[in-house]
Amino acid sequence: MLRHRSTIALLRHRSTIALLRHRSTIALLRHRSTPAAARLSAVGVLHLHYDVTMPSGRGEIVRVIAVTNQKGGVAKTTSVINGGAALAELERRVLVVDLDPQLSATRWLAGPLDTRGLFDVLTGGEAPELVEQVVATPVEGMDLIPGSRFLTGVERAVSGQWTGPESLLRRAVDELPEDRWDVVLLDCPPTLGLVAVSALVAAREVLVPVEARVMALDGLVSLLQTLQQVREGTLNTDLGPAMILPVRVDRTRLARDVVDTLGDRLGEMLLTTRIRDSIRVAEAPSRHLAITQYASGSSGAEDYRALAAELITRVEVAA
User: Fold this and answer.
1) Which listed site, 62, 142, 162, 280, has its alpha carbon 20 to 30 Å from 296?
2) For residue range 304-315, what is the model confidence (pLDDT) as tens digits?
3) How confident is the model at residue 78, as a pLDDT?
4) How many CB atoms neighbour CB 60 within 10 A?
5) C-alpha distance from residue 160 to each of 3, 105, 255, 275 (Å)
6) Cα(6)–Cα(2) distance, rounded to whole angstroms?
7) Which tens digits make up the pLDDT trace of 6-41?
8) Do residues 73 and 294 touch, judged by C-beta distance below 8 A?
9) Is 173 strand, coil or helix?
10) Coil/strand/helix, residue 97
11) Higher-confidence residue: 233 or 290?
12) What domains can you pick out in the chain, each with its CATH number?
């Protein structure tokens, strides 16, 4: 069989937990009286084990972070743009790569811009190097590689290739100049298809925004299983453990319940930052500005600055 077909089949197959090689077990509470705990139990989080140690890495200075969640509408692009802007405020040079065919990040930062560039990169076509696709954004210190609506046809376009297309993006990212950006943020589509898998193969770290809602937990287990399979297989042994970011956290008891349950089950993978529900954050894309520009003193700006600081602290501690 073609290599890429077997790879995608592996990632789409929900194998039993026994197939995963477990090296470290996170503390799992058995109390299931709350709705969030019951939901996580039902979808399997209580029985998952994860290695929470950081991989050795490839030795590059640039951090490559895939921001992903297979559920749509979970503030994924919002976290990419606002988290990236907050990192830029801390003098980190940021590059956003829009891998979502909905082009949300591109429209937010650059308006109605659509190119074939990333599609050609992911399908092995004659594409310009990634560095040649970079455009400026209204956020000082943050650049963008625009997305492409053609990304919806990536899997169909590579159906006859013998070599693994899931590695093409990694090769392109590895060729980026190391002295131009400090952080590369890969804005992934809300699926676990070839484009998202390619981002996981290219990344060293993974940020997973999760809404503080019970129903938002359903896809988390399959995503974490996929991350483990990518890391422990041959696709990307450099991939670090997921960083879970609670978003749209309001003052309700349910939201607190969900966040507390995530902490009980996922331990160190849960970030300490909480992104509160904010109308200012929702308004910022229509102004083509990050929240740190649009409403610098808002709770949303404060939260994303906290996220940026925590991301920096995490890599310094790991080093």
Assistant:
1) 62
2) 999 999 999 987
3) 97
4) 13
5) 10, 30, 46, 43
6) 6
7) 444 444 443 323 233 333 322 332 333 456 555 555
8) no
9) helix
10) strand
11) 290
12) 56-318 (3.40.50.300)
pLDDT band at residue 124, thresholds of 50, 70 and 90?
Answer: confident
Q: Under 8 Å CB-to-CB from 13, ≥6 apart: which residues? A: none
Placement of tokens 């560039």 in the chain = 117
Q: How far apart are CA 92 and CA 63, in angstroms?
A: 11
Rg over alpha carbons for the chain, rounded to the nearest Å, is 19
| Residue whose pair of structure tokens reads 């029985």 in the numeric block | 47
Sequence-distant (≥ 6) Cβ neighbours of residue 145 within 8 angstroms: 95, 96, 97, 98, 117, 118, 130, 133, 134, 135
Q: Does residue 270 carry a pLDDT above 90?
A: yes
DSSP secondary structure, 14-50, as one string: ---GGGS-------------SHHHHHHHHHTGGG---
Give the amino acid at 237: T
Token pair in block for residue 221:
């287990």
- Give DSSP secondary structure letters for 41-80: HHHTGGG-----SPP---S-SSEEEEE--SSSSSSHHHHH
Whether 244 contacts 227, CB under 8 Å: no
